[in-house]
Specification:
Layout (H helix, E strand, L loop, with lengths): L4 E2 L7 E8 L8 E2 L3 E8 L2 E5 L2 E4 L5 E4 L5 E5 L5 E8 L1 H5 L2 E2 L2 E2 L2 H8 L4 E4 L6 H12 L7 H22 L2 E3 L7 H12 L7 H7 L4 H12 L3 H18 L4 H7 L5 H12 L11
Helix pairs in contact: 3-4, 8-9, 8-10
GO molecular function, one term: DNA-binding transcription factor activity
Pfam families: AraC_binding, HTH_18
Organism: Anaerocolumna cellulosilytica
Length: 280
């Protein structure tokens, strides 16, 4: 494929879905501009995130940071069941104090270079029970429904962060991850504001242009140029929401031409930069 797809829109602080795919589906690589939590329940799935591949077991927790390119792949015809939570990055930012930060679990995933947590007896844990209660609360129209959902969600995030920080969980190593690809992705993400070209990467990693382009597309499903552009757009959106002017965000995120930036931004987010909504 030649483009990376942005999927899912979040107009609330968080949303929860319980999904079963009873037939094999083909998922494309895609990303979201919000964080995503998946509790995997059943199926035989390989989950790819930013060049890393994970063979999932029931009750594994997958943490996908905003902007990370990912997709699941069916390995057989068994039912793929999971609970998915979309979580606003702006919402989580509100819950940061001297002794807590609800973003810690996502930050730990980056630090550990692993997107998958495996918790012993997860199905019997308080974390999972709160998750189920949260899911069921969306079917309930009782008094203070939305407030109750928010309380349950915050309780879920507290338990998740406690688990992530406890040292009693396993951060899965990725299966068959190509070290060269991971190095290239890391380099790109650390140098987005700079001039990155195929020649730059070719020289940095001692690879021919042709091999590099073929290798990247073969391993990830998208081109180097599209990957860099999408990452820069997400960086620019975050800068605008953090208080930068549109022009500052354009050049700080690595774009050299404002017109090119404006067109790409509108195509990706269906709005002009000056109207960029909060990540909600």
């Amino acid at each position: 494929m030649n483009t990376i797809e942005k999927l899912g829109y979040l107009n609330h602080d968080f949303k929860i879905f319980h999904i079963k795919d009873r037939e094999r589906r083909e998922f494309n690589f895609h990303y979201h501009d919000f964080n995503k939590i998946i509790i995997f329940l059943s199926g035989k799935i390989n989950y790819s995130i930013e060049g890393k591949n994970y063979m999932l077991n029931p009750y594994d927790i997958i943490l996908v940071n905003a902007g990370e390119i990912h997709k699941p792949s069916f390995l057989d015809g068994s039912v793929y069941e999971r609970i998915i939570m979309y979580v606003s990055t702006q919402f989580l930012e509100q819950y940061r104090g001297e002794d807590y930060d609800l973003n810690s679990c996502f930050n730990m995933a980056k630090k550990e270079h692993s997107n998958v947590l495996r918790i012993h007896n997860m199905d019997k844990s308080k974390l999972y029970q709160v998750c189920l209660e949260l899911e069921h609360s969306f079917e309930d129209n009782s008094f203070a429904r939305e407030l109750y959902q928010k309380i349950l969600f915050l309780e879920f995030m507290i338990h998740l962060n406690r688990a992530a920080l406890s040292g009693h969980v396993n951060y899965l190593n990725s299966d068959a991850a190509n070290p060269k690809l991971l190095d290239i992705l890391e380099y790109i993400n650390e140098h987005l504001a700079e001039d990155i070209t195929i020649d730059t990467l070719s020289e940095e990693f001692y690879l021919s242009r042709f091999y590099l382009m073929h290798f990247f597309k073969e391993e990830t499903g998208y081109t180097i140029g599209n990957y860099i552009t999408e990452k820069r757009l997400l960086l620019a959106k975050g800068l605008v929401q953090g208080g930068c002017t549109i022009t500052e965000a354009c050049y700080k995120s690595g774009f050299k031409n404002y017109s090119t930036f404006s067109r790409a931004f509108k195509k990706a987010f269906h709005t002009m930069p000056k109207n960029a909504p909060l990540l909600d």
